[in-house]
Amino acid sequence: MSAMFRSFRTFNYRTWFFGAVISNIGGWMQATAQDWVVLTELTDNDATAMGVTMALQFGPPLVLVSITGWVADRFDRRKVLLLTQSTLMMLAVAVAVLLLTGIMTLPLMFCFAAAFGVTNAFDAPARQAFVSDMVSLEDTSNAVALNSASFNMARLIGPAVGGLLIVAIGTGWVFVANAVTFLAMIIALLTIRTRELMPRVKNRNAGGLAEGFRYVWGRPDLVVVFIMVFLIGAFGMNFPIFASTMALEFGRKADGYGLLSSVLAIGSLAGALLAARRDRARVRVLIFAAGGFGVASIVSSVMPTYWSYAAVLIFVGFSTVSMLTTANGYVQTTTDAALRGRVLALYMAVIMGSTPIGAPIAGWIVDAFSPRAAIMVGGVAGIVAFGIGMGWMLSSGRLRRRDNTRFQLTLDETRPLSVIRAMNPASFDDRVTATTPIRLKNK
Q1: What does the CA dihedral 71, 76, 80, 82 come to, rounded to 10 degrees?
Q2: What average pLDDT does the chain have?
Q3: Which of 141, 205, 317, 351 is at a distance of 20 to 30 A from 247, taking alpha carbons?
């Protein structure tokens, strides 16, 4: 099997992947419908209200991070996901009923956005950590990249289909369709062979989130990754606000907005598949992808036509997913397995919790100035993130001259170690792991 798809050798991962694709398509359809409802049905093109909705939906991972990471480490992740996916399905049905009966109001939509956010706060770290439960450590980086490809494959299809369905049958029925797609993920979780899951590493210490925070604080490389992801997540990744308001500026309707989201996903899918080809996640890819995101965003903000703006979005999507997939894979594969759930909860709090800070600001900039100004601010955030990453790389001493050449430079990465199977000399395997998990002693 191709190295790009090596995680598909595992039955559990194959089952998970295809269930996730179907469920994610429905999720992107619903996201498109929700944004359009707030922007055009519940308000008169109020981008600030849309920013508040996003803040309510993505704020809970930041507020509840002390609980969600502990839950992901302490409880059976498959059972946690069954509960969260079922809850998200019921919430989608409730929103559909209120929209179809004409009862939905903006305050009610705010409440449901918060409910989606609370449920996703528990779902996200368990889902991210569950990927590493299904494959070996050496395949974890590949599995994370393919997971991102699944997400962006759905992003390629979902918004375009959602936009067409909004025009054809209305927003309420889009929520109904999403509720049905949750069944794919629930069936996949029930089908997974639990006996083939990787053994869970038990944490011997009683510390909770504070232990995960101390671990991250003791890893300067992770601190830099978190800061870069926060900057771009807060100010650059408010795509629903950017794409919907730019669609209106170009005189397009819901289908035009959905098409922009799908075009963004073309580059995103390419970035995810390219990441799947790499043997491990590298910080230098993250740094240069952040710079690419900044440049592409600034260029997109000055595009004069709908189609030229859409074309540049391909590069925005490519750099965004290259950055996020690399960051996710690096965090997962270099983190002590006993603390992985808590560290991932912190990571998800940074990436999802940055939205409540940045989305209202982006909405205000759109209303006060223009969508182009808001996109420009996001591009500048990408350039700043690139500068922080480069500054750390130069000051950390990892960048040095190659030993065997005079002018070429090389960057020291986290060193992999050879895997030796204990108690069975005949099964010695000199393949390297994806990267070296680092365990820090409590001080």
Answers
A1: 180
A2: 78
A3: 351
Non-local CB neighbours of 11 within 8 Å, separated by 6+ positions? 193, 196
Cβ count near 186 (within 10 Å):
16
Query: Which strand (E) or helix (H) includes residue 331?
Result: helix 306-333
Identify the bridge partners of residue 409 per DSSP, sorted by sequence position.
401
Q: What is the pLDDT of residues 82-109, one digit of tens each?
A: 999 999 999 999 999 999 998 999 999 9
Query: Rounded to the nearest 5°, which phi and psi values hold at 416?
Result: -75, 155
The number of residues making up the chain comes to 443
How is residue 288 written in tokens? 């240069």
Using DSSP's 3-state secondary structure scheme, residue 200 falls into coil
Q: Which residue has the tokens 């369905």?
A: 165
What is the C-alpha to C-alpha distance for residues 247 and 260, in angstroms, rounded to an integer? 8
Encoded tokens for 387: 């500068």
Phi and psi at 67, nearest 5°, equal -100, -45
151 in a domain, yes or no?
yes
Q: Residue 265: inside a domain, yes or no?
A: yes
CA distance 418 to 113: 47
Residue 284 lies in a domain: yes
DSSP state of 211: H
CATH of the domain at 394: 1.20.1250.20
Better pLDDT: 23 or 342? 23
Both tokens of 316, joined, read 């925005």
The position carrying tokens 């002390």 is 66
In a domain, 433, yes or no: no
**Domain containing residue 56:** 8-197+207-398
For residue 399, list its beta bridge partners. 411
Nearest to 41 by CA among 237, 175, 161: 175
Q: Cα separation of 443 and 438, whole Å?
A: 15
Count the domains in the chain. 1
CA angle 114, 118, 120 (to 5 degrees): 110
Full-prediction pTM beyond 0.90?
Answer: no
CA 413 to chain centroid = 23
Torsion of Cα atoms, 332 then 337 then 338 then 340, to 10°: 10
b/e for 131-144, b at 16 or more Cβ within 10 A? bbbbbbbbbbbbbb
